[in-house]
Amino acid sequence: MNEYVVLSSILFTIGCVGVLTRRNAIVVFMCVELMLNACNLAFVAFARQHGNLDGQIAAFFVMVVAAAEVVIGLAIIMTIFRTRRSASVDDASLLKY
Amino acid sequence: MSIAFEEATVPVVDPSAADGVFSLLWLVIALPLAGAVVLLVGGALGRPGRLLDRWGHYLGVLAAVASFGLSVALFVSLLGRGEEERQIGQHLYTWFQVGGLDVGLDLLYDPLSALFLLLITGVGSLIHLYSVGYMEHDVRRRRFFGYLNLFVAAMLVLVLSANFLGLFLGWEGVGLASYLLIGFWQHKHSAAAASKKAFVINRVGDIGLSLAIALMFATFGTTDFAGISEVAGEASEATLTAIGLLLLLGACGKSAQVPLQAWLLDAMEGPTPVSALIHAATMVTAGVYLVVRANFIFELAPVAQTAVVVVGAVTLLWGAVIGCAKDDIKKALAGSTMSQIGYMMLAAGLGPVGYAFAIFHLLTHGFFKANMFLGAGSVMHGMNDDVDMRHYGALRTAMPVTFATFAMGYLAIIGFPGFSGFWSKDRIIETALADNLVAGLCALAGAGITAFYMTRLMLMTFFGEKRWERDVHPHESPAVMTVPLVALAALSVVGGVLVLGDWIVEWLLPVTGVGEHHEPPLPALAITAIIVAVVAVGVAAAFLLVGRRDVPREAPRNVSFVTRAARADVYGDAFNDTFVVRPAAELVRGLTTADRVGIDGVVEGGAATMGGLSGLLRRVQNGYVRSYALSLLGGVLLVVLALMAVNLA
Fold first, then answer.
1. pLDDT tens, residue by residue, B577-630
2. Contact across the interface for A95 and B623, Cβ inside 8 Å
3. Are B408 and B375 in contact (CB under 8 A)?
4. In which element (H, E) is residue B91 found?
5. Among B177, B291, B313, B563, which residue has the least CB neighbours within 10 Å?
């Protein structure tokens, strides 16, 4: 049981650091996916431990949301790339004070 | 005295319903009011307005004369009634009804208001007529006559109302008309300022009157003369004294009595017919009317009554001293008006023995002072509107009619035996001496000073050398102006008949009641002789000091303290400035500073702090997604840590 949670934490941390440090929008996106799946892993592990299906249902919801997010996120990244000729998240910084 | 004096009583106002000719009472007010409405509103109507510009002033005169005719008819009918039936009430409609306060627009026609009706509409008609000549070339003539009619209507409301609220309505109405007419030549800065001054000082008095009315309602539950006179005795003396003093404050404001006297001299900025009608003959005597009308209050409040006497005595000397030093003919007459109203106040403060003589002097003063003001207007008309008496001199040949009529007014005011002023002033001084020796001596001294300043005015204007300006050609005024002068001069001469056989005393008996009569310290004839002697001394002094010397064209500078004080209106304005205007201005300035520094400082300082802080804070919104993510993570960590801390604790 412990191992699952530790793996989940490691995956989440990797995703988190990736989001905070990488500039390429596609990589940032993949890191977000990594964090989501780390959560899924934790959900499923805890569901198994408690012996009910609540965590597994939550994992399905996360997958659905992640799929929707991918669709919209990739579309946004494509559009930014078309207009700015770059996939760096730091270049899209016009919306500020 | 031909009246049998019983014990002192306060009469109760108990009017009977109006019938016959008396049911037309409302028309006396309605006629001039309609005139005012037509003249003031009609001017905005295009073609009819232009017609009114040309002919409207005759409409104004007609309204006043018709009202006078009706007043005479009413007076004659009242004469025909028995003494007990001489109070007639007319209920027009219920003005308003709030809780226990039921105020009707009621009229009360009794011997007192009958005399006022004759004075207001009679002298008013003559002055309307005079104004036709005086205002002939004024482009705003229609408006002037509209205001005059408005004044007459308001003054009639004042004296005809049967309750204090109606009286207050008229009181404010005449105040408005006075304001409009003092500032009639509004392009002159001095006239605009004078009208404002009159209005503001009158507000002070009006506060007194309105508080008195409120106090009367709180005490008696009504504002009707009838209701209050019936139950006045049940109130405590302290309440009655407070009401009396507040009423006196109101009377001081309207009648230009010390300490609210300062506006009257400036009010002379208005056209001269206005000075004659409003600021000499009628409106300024409203205070005397108020005191006499509220006799049921003053009779029961001896302190307030004494205050009336003191105010009267002080003002009659105050005004007389001012009159001695003024070179402006209208201001000299205005000082005289203050002084003469002081006489009336003094008499009114003496109680039932004085009321009739106060009203008697009010009537004779209305005749001779209106006469002299109109005479002064006639002189100014011939002298290109110059008011400085030092530029007059020797006008008796150039303006014989004005001179002759003015002389009648002069003889009346100084109390030359046989003229109207002689009878009225003589009676006041006599009563005052019997009742209150100090007040009597003040009145006696006032008679001497009156003789002095009026003789000085007469000598400087009509006698001596010609001191005219170069391009001035004095001429007699047209007949439309001299006819009212002649009529008023005739009244100034014969006005004294009202007191023959104590007619006026008996006539006013239902209003004033019978008072305790004191024996004068000397026989009446001896007192009369003393008064005449004092007057003769005043006249002689004027002849010696003014008549036998040349009058310099410029006012001399090196004059005594008394003259300087009198020229400065006995420092009335200086006093107001020092003790009222400047402290108030300082207070306002202090409040403004406190507002700007204190309250604005707090509010604007707070706003500036928030603005500065948000200026710093918005730097956080830097547009980099990753920094947002970092703060999101930080926030989540904080929440998690907090939850853990709570759970572990």
1. 899 899 999 999 999 999 999 999 999 999 999 999 999 998 888 888 888 999
2. yes
3. no
4. strand B88-98
5. B563
